[in-house]
Amino acid sequence: AQSVTQPDIHITVSEGASLELRCNYSYGATPYLFWYVQSPGQGLQLLLKYFSGDTLVQGIKGFEAEFKRSQSSFNLRKPSVHWSDAAEYYCAVGPSRAGSYQLTFGKGTKLSVIP
Amino acid sequence: GAVVSQHPSRVICKSGTSVKIECRSLDFQATTMFWYRQFPKQSLMLMATSNEGSKATYEQGVEKDKFLINHASLTLSTLTVTSAHPEDSSFYICSARRQGRNTEAFFGQGTRLTVV
What we know:
The structure holds 2 protein chains of 2 kinds.
Chain A: E1 3-5, E2 10-14, E3 19-21, E4 24-26, E5 32-38, E6 44-50, E7 56-58, E8 64-68, E9 73-78, E10 87-94, E11 104-105, E12 109-114
Parallel strand pairs in A: 2-12
Antiparallel strand pairs in A: 1-4, 3-9, 5-6, 5-10, 7-8, 8-9, 10-11, 10-12
Chain B: E1 4-7, E2 10-13, E3 19-25, E4 30-38, E5 44-51, E6 57-58, E7 67-73, E8 76-81, E9 90-98, E10 105-107, E11 111-115
Parallel strand pairs in B: 2-11
Antiparallel strand pairs in B: 1-3, 3-8, 4-5, 4-9, 5-6, 7-8, 9-10, 9-11
């Protein structure tokens, strides 16, 4: 069965510092990979996605992620964090079942930003 | 990106009553919609998958008779929590996916349900 591990429950960075959020997955084939961001009491917003092709993916708000098959990882990066980036970040892998397009989510990483 | 609207954003109901939550894809046709439940400080747990015009597929442990899902059109899915109890209080989120390969799902804003 597929699974997603986000090793860091909570990360705190200073505004302007670089950021890397880790995501490791277990999946039997080439996965679809996603990063979502959730602000308190809100739904999820897609930051970026990987289906195939270039393993370095650019997303919104200055985020990028790199798919590394050999490491089963899809880490999210941002060169300079803004205070508005404070939120919960979820990595997801899919599809959960062939043809189903369901997603399996990690437990999330809470990002706090120090002004 | 595509827009998914979920309504209401917050609802408080009495125990024993039923609550309906709507999920609409505003600018695309959603052949598949997903309903998730999120407990405080937890990740999303998939409850069910619905395809337009067919019965929903529920995940193991989710009561079909308690969480009624209807996906009557390509732009609307509803989740009805029947005979709600305080333990049903949670944050419910829907997502919708458009038809085709390699398309991502877009999420609604979520509904905070409180059963008193």
